[in-house]
Amino acid sequence: GRPVLLLHGFPQTSASWAPGSPLLAQAGLRTYAPDQLGYSPGARPDDVEAYSAQNLAQVTADLMTALEIPVADVVGHDWGANVAWTLAAWHSDRVRSLTAVSVPHPTAYTVAYRTDPEQKERSGYIRLFWQAGKAEDVLLADDARRLRRMLAGSENATGVPEEAIEEYVAVLSAPGALTAALNWYRAMS
Q1: Of 45, 97, 53, whose CA–CA distance to 73 is shortest?
Q2: Which residue from 168, 131, 169 is spatially nearest to 15, judged by alpha carbons?
Q3: Where are the alpha helices (DSSP H) in 52-91?
Q4: Can you give the pLDDT at residue 60?
């Protein structure tokens, strides 16, 4: 079937697409849901610049090339949506369609963040995420209590089971994993 590239966000992994992938396959589509840069032990660059939007889009285009996917329908959630938007901007010939889930276009978000006090307040957690070391300590303290709460707030409304939350926590608790995932935020500052 026609290829669909599914890009996850923070703090999820490719497993976040598990409930929807079979439905897309039943509709005749071929799905690809990779763990994005930083979420796999063999793909965790230390350099924050490796997580810039432009580099993440290039990594995604390179992955598409490696998988022999010349063009795909791209669906991104959260940070995956930002990668999808950037992929469409820098590699428009690779994107048949783009679906962004839960976030607006990056430019619209930036304008809202800079001009709307309510959006700035809602995005206050980002200032913590920019603090290397401190953010990791806060999110992983007390058996990752805050990370679990963050996941429960974003996931349980969609019916994702508790086991999935435990899987996400296990992935992000591995050495270097949470730092790599938070480097997405640090690259934007």
Answers
A1: 97
A2: 168
A3: 53-66, 79-90
A4: 98
- Tell me the two tokens of residue 164: 């999935």
Of residues 31 and 153, the one with the higher pLDDT is 31
Copy the structure tokens of residue 59: 């990594």
| All residues at 6 or more sequence positions from 40 whose CB lies less than 8 Å from its CB, including other chains | none
- Say if residue 1 is exposed, middle or buried (CB neighbours under 10 Å; 0-12, 13-18, 19+): exposed
| pTM tops 0.85 | yes
**Could you identify the residue written with the tokens 């500052």?**
189
The predicted model gives 43-60 an average pLDDT of 97
CA distance 130 to 101: 23
- Ramachandran sector of residue 132 (left: φ over 0; alpha: ψ -120 to 50; beta: rest): beta
pLDDT of residue 155: 45
Cβ pair 38, 44 in contact under 8 A: yes
What is the three-class DSSP state of 3? strand
- Can you list the alpha helix ranges (DSSP code H) found in the chain? 21-26, 53-66, 79-90, 106-115, 117-122, 125-129, 134-155, 162-173, 177-188
Torsion of CA 130, 104, 114, 37, to 10 degrees: 20
3-state secondary structure of 36: coil
